[in-house]
Protein 1
Amino acid sequence: MESRSQQHCPLCSSGISSKQIHAFRRGYLTCPRCALVFMLPEYRLAASAEEARYLLHQNNRADSGYCQHLRRAIAPLTSLVTSGYGLDFGCGPSHTASELLEEMGYTVTNYDPFFAPDQSALEYEYDFILCTEVAEHFHLPFHEFDRLHRMLKPGGWLALMTKLLERGQALTTWWYAKDPTHVSLYSQVSLDWISKRWSWTMQCSSEDVYLLRKALSCSRTRGTIQMCGSSMT
């Protein structure tokens, strides 16, 4: 079933007047400019229902499979950043990634709007930011990626883990879109738009893991953002 809807893309702000895609009893639009597929706001879960769904996840330090999953992002990141201060953005309730990194000698701050909501964590610049399976939950991806950009020191790295919608893949049959908290779905075109918009260099480490580096020439952000720890090595 399809119907007309007019919205602005929450990533690139392009105006969209196109047919909705209906999948899993929810409505989505596809941006013709950055290829973001995003859930229409009226289909999103309420915040309480979203938090309850996250609490169903059995992800913790004792789960060796989950730890190995996180190391898929941690290993390539730590090969590029040999010391420094980092942020686990969207850490979830277990804080497992920060524990793994701290065991390797890094200092890591946790932030999550539900489980570690201390806003002071967003007032610093970091050598690296870990963002594993978080970007697909962004209601306002431009706002979130811009915030990540401002929180990175010049030359800092963002480790992004998310599934990409492949060319020709139907949303109605893609298991990753079935999760009702996955409101922003990206493709390679979307990541290319993101890296160009913030002048990040990007490399793909492995399936679903992307390392994005902030330009060294970026000037320091003025205002509330403060330096956190030492500079990159």
Note: The two ends are 54 Å apart (CA to CA).
Protein 2
Amino acid sequence: MLEKWLKLQNGSDIRGVALEGIEGENVNLEAHEVTCIAGAFAKWVSGKVNKPTSELKIAVGRDSRVSGPELMQGVLNGLCASGTTALDCNLASTPSMFMSTIFEETKCDGAIMITASHLPFNRNGMKFFTNQGGLDKPDIKEILTEASSYTKPDTAEGTTEKYDLISRYSAHLVDYIRAQVNHKTHYETPLKGLNILVDAGNGSGGFFAEKVLRPLGADTNGSQFLEPDGMFPNHVPNPEDNDAMASVQKATIDQNADLGIIFDTDVDRAAIVDKGGKIINRNRLIALMSAIVLEDAPSTTIVTDSVTSDGLAQFISSLGGTHHRFKRGYKNVINESIRLNEEGSHSGLAIETSGHGALKENYFLDDGAFIVTKILVKLSQLQQENKTLSQIIEALREPQEASEFRVKIKLEDFKAYGQSVIESFTAFADAHPDYSIVPNSFEGIRLSCNAPEARGWFLVRLSLHDPVLPINIESDIAGGVDIIAKTLYTHLKSYESLDLSAFE
């Protein structure tokens, strides 16, 4: 019984199949499950804040998914059955749900966001917050364990209150931009004269055009897919998806806009397109945010995930910062940045190539809208200097080629086998004079390639959840990725339990 519940865990989130419609994917997350999980969360929060569940206030919001309203009612039922006051925030963003624990008007003891980020329409999930931030893996396991045997407490029913959280959150961003830009003649409308469009991908991010950009004076003509639609009919809301980025890029070029903004479904990730159509995501977004943060905090440490490029490290160093690569997973990157600060080493930014970015000044909350807010402040300042965002990162050296190969492991005990493959690259480096191990790899093993025909690097790591060895390769030479890949293939083909079709 417990095993069924634990299968819903996805790192520090809960993810499951909420709707039929995709062959082979059986529904395992419905109203009953989320009711039990919500009740278990209330009990967990009660223990953390040392208050009975009847004195708790917990906020609940959802993204635009089709299954959202039904699951939200299940969550509200679970909280009310525990005697808790449930704040019904309806359509919201993941970052705004955390802020419900911070805003003086709400001061919630906890918050639940019903979302599955950019996953297909049939999926859904839950993210949890206290005023200390998002929960970690052990917390989720504890809550699911409690949910597996959860029964309705013999207490009085709690109450439900409706609250327009997204408007309060939007006002918070508007106030921040006005204060930071402090425009001498247009304090209320510091974005006046700028055409800025939003592509929400039919997720929850459409509010940003109406409630943030327009009050600041921006022209939002050209914005698209702002209406919530959980079937995502236009493109997947995902700043890493090529089709999604091509869509917002085209809109920005066609509109001759000063900036295009794209959010994922629940607005904890973002990317942008600069005037002229240059896509700024992944390493470019990290470089841009690093440059902005380093202006205010010279010599700070920027924590990223493990697959960032060598050019990015050089760019951060050239600005006086320190680049610290860590394990993939947004919570891993955020927690590492928090750890560095606690040890006395200032780290102002934790950001993944996926677009998850968290700033020290913003509670280390991975907030796509706040990342964009920081960029808008810079854009307004640059407008007065007749400069563009791309000029800030023009010194970023980008690889000529980059690819990812996902090598499947054909064993049930894939973790031990995968680790043995990773360890074999120590001997690989000894046998190949053009390759050397990059020190301080916190995930897998990273080797640089100094061969003149294939200058670059590769990283071999073990997937967090799947029997897969993702191998990332970058090269500064055209054709270099293919040369490195062939060398890796020769090394890996002696491992009979690896599926090397990704190379072939």
Note: The longest strand covers residues 401-409.
Protein 3
Amino acid sequence: MKQNADMLSALRRIVGQQHFLTDPESLRHYGCDRCDLFEPSPVAVVRPGTTDEVRAIVLLANEHRQALVPSGGRTGLSGGATASRGEVVVSLERMKRILDCSAPDGTIRCQAGVVTAQLQEQASRMGLYYPVDYAATGASQIGGNIATNAGGNRVIRYGMTRNWVAALQVVSGDGQVLELGRGLIKDNSGYNLMDLFIGSEGTLGFITEATMRLAPAPAEATVMVLGLDRLEYLLNVLGVFRAAVTLNAFEFFTESALKRVVERHRLQRPFADRCPVYALIEFEGDSERDIEAALAAYEQTRASGWVREGTISQSREQARSLWRLRDDISDTLAQWTPYKNDLSVPISAVPDFLADIEAYVAEHYPGFEVLSYGHIGDGNVHLNILKPEGMATEAFKAHCDQASEGIFELLKRYRGSISAEHGVGLLKKPYLRYTRSEAETALMRTIRKVLDPHGIMNPGKIFD
């Protein structure tokens, strides 16, 4: 016990009394992300303000074999930022400065605690654009985005976070400060170690600074919401619109999801008809020619019997309102304690895959409601199993863990991934074998051992 007390006292000296937290409210607040299926139990929370302080924390943790859990905006949905085994949570929220901006290079260098929306606003002031965007941009932090390789709504056009990282400063699990990448467009001087940390979920070290690439400012976007009678029509509609306009996003959601969002947030329905499936389409360009091309595509899909009804934004405000019908789904479903599966399959397989899953759950778990939505334009499906009223969370999780085996067997047939953009964390760890071979997992363990020899960095996440 004295060794533990000594270690905690040393942590307090590193960050200062104000940034060393052990009260129950702070431990719970910082001890988990938005996956509330695991109980947080950290021993302390520290909030360093510099890379030097982060390094000092890591060196001390190695000395005492104390496990650390990185904490950003805690918007993750897989338990990747949950401290459930007496770890010390290291929150980077104080490290929130934008350090350098370069319009000629099209980059912003910032600390890991910068919130995504802050980066987007700075890019806009430079006449540029940071395109990785999703519902949690007002809370998620750049370090966490990189650690989970966040995707979001516009992957079909702009790709994942990985595509926008130019350089990183990291503190590895053994306490080295590494400058990875030089912000160059071309650099073929050996292995790309920076890429290891992107999507590593804090298991290799702490990301403390990042240089992010920016895109040219886009033209004004227009949003359409279309109602369809059958899920399989989505791919036909995607093909028509992809040929007609430059797509930024192609999303889908169901009537079950829309009904809940509209009721919870008192939003207006896109049109009077209630359709089983909806597509949300965002395309770049607000010129008369762009609008005419989109409307022609709409008429073609209606004439083909794929689309029953639709609406198109007439202003930026209307576009935002239509996006809320999709973006507010995750927040709306939180009251049902959903068991979330963030899956990806080839785009062409999405309708058949979803039909197989719904049939499987209906047969084996008839009391559960399955609600799906997501980024059909890049093959990413968010599958939510809603907790029945009155069922205890532990019992519900046990049922869903069992159901996941069958779902992932289906996924394996489609050569899909158990995690499209939310990471593995604690929630998906038991199912990594459906995506990664034994040889791949062994290599990942070897890499982790090199960078984190004592296993202090976010232990228990991705694999044991």
Note: The first helix runs from residue 2 to 15.
Protein 4
Amino acid sequence: MNKILLIICVSLTLVSCRKFLTEYSPSDVIPTTTADFGEILYADGYPENGTRTLYRWAAFLDDDIQCYLGPTNITAINFITSARILLQWQPDLATENLSFGMDINSWAKFYKLLLGVNVVIQSLDDAAGPQEQKDQFKGEAYVLRAFYHFMLVNFYSRPYNDSTTTPDKIMGVPIRVDANLSDSFMTRSSVKEVYDQIASDLDMGIELLERKKKFSSVFRISHIAAHLLASRVHLYMENWDKAVYHADKVLAVHPQLMDYNSKIGVPVTMEDGLVGPTNVESIWCYGNARERYPEGYGFTYDVSADLVQTFEPDDLRRSIAIYEIPDFLKPYVAIPVSQQKQLGDYNSGNKSITNSWRSSEAYLNRAEAYIQKYRISGNSNYATEALESLNILRSFRFPAGTYQPWGVEPGDVLLQMCRDERRRELFCEEAHRWFDLRRYGMPTIKHIYTPDIGVVETYTLNKRDPQYVMPIPDEVLTKNPALIRDPLYEGIRMKD
């Protein structure tokens, strides 16, 4: 199908679309049936599972990554310098052109996808076709619209639960809920307004998707995926009861967990990996290996020593999801450990899936929400509920018959245990760790940077640092002067 007018008028940077009118050709196909809109949704509303990425640069932000350099990879110094401003959290990120195709303008990518889903939401009711299809496609579109706003507000705004203020006083991102042409510039709504829109879209999407409760493919949004995202959103909003409610909805129909015992002695492959469509836990999959496996990863960048130290000795994730370079290879490999979740070759543009919404997250969301209820009330029944989720999840991550369940601890202790478990379970997936650090209060974290053999530098992202908010790209601000950028870190960030 050719692009329809509304798709041609992609307001990538939220500028006027009226100038695009002259680009419209009468030969373009105007959608009239539900099937037409289904094609538009899949082509222009879903993330591509091919070679394009949405936010691959985000892999360099959190404390789960480290830079490694040795005699064996000194020729790859260009990989190290290509990600320098990301790894050092430099304020000129918005103006830099990153090498190797790491386009920093994820803002434009998400708003382009928002246009695609808005076309479907706005026009599908008048299409010819069965109501069941309309409900399904609109339900998917509402959930995707919620997801894209969720990603935007967590990259480009301060966190919802910022302890120094309230979400109604924090600049969020522009809310895009229509596909109409306009000459006016869109402005930033508050974080509260954005989250309210996200929650509303999820409610609508869930209502539509639950009419049929169809789960046809891990590549399409289902009612289960909608509830999982809702549990994540309400966890961020600290709506503990709603986070539990939606997590319970997920686990009632999709409680499956991968047994890591089945992976002992079995090489992890792209075809049968720890994330992606072959994992029994997967609920929705999108993207490709380049999203969380950017250039240089696995060669000059890989999992940090800090992350590795969080695993218990007999945790199977430590030996399966992370590969320790054997002694006989260490003279030939600069990195001592390598993650095994995201496997791929960035040169080949392979289509191996990198992002999976998994049932394990539902267990973690449920546990964290119950722990917070326990901390507030002191009711140990909430601790028991939280431990039920954590112990079920962990029992699949340790050698069969050896796991010792966790017991009740003080609320703050149990919360830290849950957060550590979340880090171990979800590392190298989506932007989980970066977003979690933000909602944990934006703590101080450090990165090791090795620009040359024998040179080790440390850079610090301070508590509540301005660079916990990604700067809106310069090209966006140039085309939309109504946008206001959050304050940047002053000056050049120097090594410790």
Note: Residues 258 and 279 are 7 Å apart (CA to CA).
